[in-house]
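Annotators were shown the component list below and the corresponding predicted structure, then asked to write short factual statements about the assembly.
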Amino acid sequence: MERASLFFIQRSSPLEMNQKGSWTRMSSIKIAILGFGTVGQGVYKTIETHQKELESVLGKKVEVAAVLIKNKEKDRGIHPGVLVTDKFEEIIDLNQLDVVVEAIVGNEPAYTYLQRAIQRGCHVITANKEMFASYGTDLKELAAQHDVSIGFEATVAGGVPVIQTIQQLLNINRIKKIEGILNGTSNYILSEMRAKGESFSAALTAAQEKGYAEADPTNDVEGFDAFYKLMILSEIAFGGKPDWERVPREGITAITREQIEKAEKLGLRFKLIASIQLINGEIVGSVRPTLVSKSHPLYHIEGVENSVSIEADIVGRITLQGPGAGMLPTASAVIEDLIHAVLKTGVPGNSFRMQQQTPEDSQVKEKQNWLILNPDDLDHFPLSLSSSAELEGSCLIQADENTVHSLRQENRNASFFEVLGEFMLEERQLVKL
Ligand SMILES: NC(=O)C1=CN([C@@H]2O[C@H](COP(=O)(O)OP(=O)(O)OC[C@H]3O[C@@H](n4cnc5c(N)ncnc54)[C@H](OP(=O)(O)O)[C@@H]3O)[C@@H](O)[C@H]2O)C=CC1
Ligand SMILES: N[C@@H](CC=O)C(=O)O
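Structure shown to annotators:
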């Protein structure tokens, strides 16, 4: 009995003194969660488990007023007082609605729902990178017009607070380059294939079961997901995005277990690397499978972990690392955005970061090391390493992007992988092109 009443006291709003000096129930922050999959459920659970912390930071209880889903037949285990509906109209028409958290999939109807929520005066938070990469600029503008916050920490690198780091903590630094592992599913698959000899499809199934993969995992394994995240980072770091068509995007589907084993023998690991930088004032990016050597920090990023390195002119290089996908890490990003939303530190324009950076000290892209697996014509590479047992049927070159591009055209069956980090082979010479 005592336990039950204690529980009741905790769940009801605390008392606050009103202007007339009498005690009333403290008002609560009412939120709606759009989507109740991995992310939506994580947010719902975290609000339950961390109500005390939320209340102490915000001075108010946070109440989930409504949840939007597609399939009304599924049992959700949601508290009976919460409106569970497949009709957005019922949510947007609620008497009180302060924050809308969007965790559904794809551009529409997510974009329209968030526009309507902002127009109603609600703060919005999204985890939907595909939508935000396309419409983030418009939504930020709309949010500024309506003086509401827009949170999108969960759109990039799951639980790793990279957006707030750039927006709130690197206001004066000029960012030169951002590079990292931005897709948890791909990194998990590559790690499982290498460490446990799993097949691609078995590793993908496991990533889906753990809630890491997108509803359509093509986005993960073909590099679209990392690409969307890169575009979101580009906008906050450089104040703009490159022409999407000019960003090479390649996923991990063509990587075989044999290639992974061959790389392993050479002390190299495959990682899906996303990178974006200013080169002579132009924003240049790419998403592609890359080989990293033991000396490189990304070599040790395994499983669902993500890692993002930010190179800036004052601070130098800082690296953030942590879980890049999954229920609770993503809920963590959303919940922290909720604090900024309610305290209004997430209103666009409240970040001091300049919108457009002067590309004064942008860099010239140097030649990189590339490992070519199975070139069609080894004679093409006079100093090829084909005589090496480990490198049988492959060679290492140093070349710029354009040279590699032409070589690819001439060697259609060969695979070209940039090598990051120190990579030297005894008695072997690098072919410099
Ligand atoms: N999973 C992760 O680790 C991360 C995911 N994200 C992003 O968060 C978003 C959600 O991901 P996740 O939770 O994994 O996805 P899920 O597929 O697990 O869940 C999607 C949810 O959205 C609902 N939904 C889909 N379309 C509609 C619609 N048109 N109207 C109403 N409800 C709809 C589904 O309803 P129903 O249950 O009825 O089918 C489901 O509850 C995605 O944009 C994803 O990219 C971001 C960071 C990490
Ligand atoms: N599918 C995504 C989820 C988080 O953004 C990933 O695997 O990284």
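Statements collected:
1. The two ends are 80 Å apart (CA to CA).
2. The domain at 169-323 is CATH 3.30.360.10 (Dihydrodipicolinate Reductase; domain 2).
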